[in-house]
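TA notes. Do not distribute before section.
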Amino acid sequence: MNRTPLGPINGNKTHRKELTPFTRGFILGKLTSGVTPPQIEREIHAPRSTIRSVLRASEWLEEGASKPRSGRPT
């Protein structure tokens, strides 16, 4: 659904928050112990794409924390 300029904003749209280092570690621990992504998805109520991106990002994340971003903090 496209929004018209100056039209109402859909209040039902969710804004996802960044995962905590604990949650990332939990996902990685489950994956390394042999639990499948669909099982993790059901357990923590996160989309499968999030689980895949945590696995991909695990190579360059330091201690599970996100790297600092450039620009003004919000």
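Switch to the second chain here.
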Amino acid sequence: MSFSSFVNIDWRDAPKTESIVAAIRRYLTKCDAEPKVQLRLESSTAPGIVALRQIDGVRMLARDDRTSARKPGANAEYWARFLKTATLLQDMVVRRDSQKMRFIQYREAGKHERLDIVKRKVMDVALTLGIHPAAFGVQQEDSGKITTPEGVTLENTTVTDIFSYEDRQRSGKAPKSLPGTTQRRMHGEHSIPLLVLDVNVKRQSSARIDAVVVVEHQNLSKLALKNVLLVMTAGFPSSATKEYLHLLSQSSKLRNVPFLYFGDHDMQGFTIFQALKYGSKNAAWGSKAMVCPQLEYAGPTRQDLKDSPRFFRPYWEAQFRADYPDATDREVEKNADRWLRRTKTKVNRKLGKHTMKDKESLKSFERLGWLDHEPMVKKEVNLIIGAEFGGKFRIADMTVVDLYYLRHFIEGKLHKKCKDRAVEKFPSPVARGARLQNTPSQFSNAPHGARNQANSQSLRTPFEGAGTQATMAEEEMAAADTVESTAPGRELSNSPQTELRLLQQLYIP
């Protein structure tokens, strides 16, 4: 299907500044002279104006190119704000001045006007004229972050001045002479640039990228996943984050690399996944440059959380044997059963019930139609709505089983994905637990392990206190006594002190 019947606005195709000023002036004159004018409203409620379409072989949310006829005098308050916003944008283009949206809110549109209303008026002007908001000099919102593995470099050609870019682009000069800064993003965590022309992925011969992982929360970078390009959206993704992920999906170096999404198990998390893969309803006018078609939902699912105590039990038993080498098999099994019962109770308490807003989100998903192409997400959404005792939880709740389990879970998913592609790249978590069980001496240097070995004759474990409160208190004391630093190159799961620090860094309040 051709894209001609849908709105497709891209800042790279914006007209020259003189043309933008002329277009605004013509429209303002029309508002004064004609009884009715045509508008494209950002928050239009017209049925079917935004729908899932197959465009160039990619499913995305596209906005129908329909306008709404309005009388300039019908709603004086709306037109006053609309004309004031249009005049402000015209002045910004004339002055060639780039400003953030809050400048428009506080300096010109009135400090008592809500930011969402200011954004809506800016988008109404942009959609009506068919010009990207960035072309008016409106700077995009703060973007997310990206973490590159060791040996991998991202070269981004960014645009620092949108007005100079437009002028020189229309002058017919070679692309290399366009005003843009090539930034080299080496190993580490970096902010995603706001306006990016292209992304070039380079890696050393010894380096590799096993997967591109997209997460909702920025502090998940503390997981330190190896050989993974980690994109953090920092909540609902901004336009810059979606455009950057789209450019990564188009890179030839990442053509055979899986793109996986991990987020909260709630409607907000599923909405973020929809915005990244299919586009969002409010930004359907630019979906063609802001979708990642190969993105896959990887969890965690409700069943993943429910099964986490059972899956982690072998690791817990290995940890217990390392701390108590003289314990018999019966004692290990007895304490593991106690831990399993208490952990299952904690897991069930993490599941939250759905709300009326969740039901409205489900209706929106069904109306847009993208759930039919995501059977796994559709199943989880129905579980949230239909679960009697709750089905929502945050991805950080996976750490209720163990401080290190979230990394175990993500690495397990990555290992399974690589194994499906006949590539054995990630170590199996079960094998890691077996190594942990066979090397108890690595725990003997820690104060916690030393204390447990000294008391191994009586086997007073943290799980044999007098009552629940005593048990919890002893667990906290055991964690507080852990003060040894982790040696370089040591396994994260082999250091109680590192695991305590992971809990502080991973828990998302």
